[in-house]
Amino acid sequence: MPSINFKTARNTLVVSDLHLTEGEPVHPKKPLWKRWKQRDLFVDREFRAFLETLSSEMDGPIELVLAGDVFDFDSVTALPENPPFRVGWLERRRGLNPDEEKSHFKMRVIIAEHPLWFDTLREFISLGHRVIFVRGNHDVELYWPKVQSLVLKRICVNKAQRRQVRFCDWFYISNSDTLIEHGHQYDAYCVTQNPSHPVIWTGRRKTLRLPFGNLTSRYLINGMGYFNPHVEASFLLSFTEYLQFFFQYMLRTQPLLMWTWFWGALATLGVSFWTSLLPSPVDPLTAEKDNQRIARNANATPSATRSLSLLKVHPATFSPMKILRELWLDRALFMLAVVVLAIQFGGTLKILLGISMWWGIAPLLLTFLPFFVFYTRSIKPKVHQYKKARRKRLKTAYKITGLQRIVNGHTHEAAHTQFGEIEYFNTGYWSAPCINIDCSRRESNRHFVWLRPKSSREREAVLGQWLGEGQGYQIVRK
Asked: Is the whole-model pTM more than 0.85?
């Protein structure tokens, strides 16, 4: 049986951040609850039209690189009717842990919800084309062999076709001219500490160490169903905007929002700190074999793989103040300190002067209120700061691999630009682009990168945008 050469490719399509997950049924009393997850916003049909249209313009085998966050395991909250495994109270409220059996169940849910999407890949592979899955932060659970086998079984007709599919840990080199990464390794809030081996031991069971961003989606966003976790403009609001949002949408349908936020933030904080300290059981006898396997799947050398793994940033979970600020727990602690101080001051006045405690509490609260407002307004979200430092790491990746073209996803911001000698692309995202609660305002999305022949020896890359079924696509110029 002839081998399939993954090292050469004439045409390569790169897409990322589809965030395929379970569908959210429409609630009779809360029709806008998790609107971004409702089935009418699935991208399956558009993805099929996109792949058919682009494929018709290419000759020979096509390489499709799904560059991370294709699946969103963190947004799956479904539970099996008769679970063969133990399900904890937190899992019942926010979704299953990333153990292999539980990830296998979540993958079954995603497959059942997106039959057209998987049928599209199945037909694509049957035509002799190749598919490469590159893990992102929201589909870390693709690491598990059982999950990979389930995907292969669904999209491949026979064992021979399975050789046309690869799973890569965090990067892939296409045709010796383009480095493709999801990009989360440069993001302190979403970085996988050990991308080649994310397994940790929690007592008697093995599970995966999830980044802080994943845990926020699970324990916080999954309980606050009016915010779209994939469009930051929908939830990175000011204190005043949050108040307006609460009174406009949540007062009647989710009046205990503050409590939901508080315990969800505490759960995120606790799990992120706890799991960040747990050991990762890497076998020193097989570590080099694992590195060689990763390098072989990614078309890289073992030395380049080791070097690229070192480009990851330091996780934010080791900086408690960063985490507290992103979860708004610093504001909660500030207010708690002010209230405690006010009560103590009011109690002291009552004992010394015999007057009501409120004569001490009210003036102190009014005095500290302006400082609280100033503090909350002065803090800006830091989830975008990594973008400034990313250029330095991309330049290092260029020195490691010698590749002048780099393609990322993760940021949900499509881009085609030049960093010195580096031609840089970002594939944006395909998931529901809802900015507001009813999805009447949407971002521009569904971008892709097309690596195509420029001459007999050279390829060029273009950034494209899928406009919709019947409309085709357009090339986005720099």
From this structure: yes
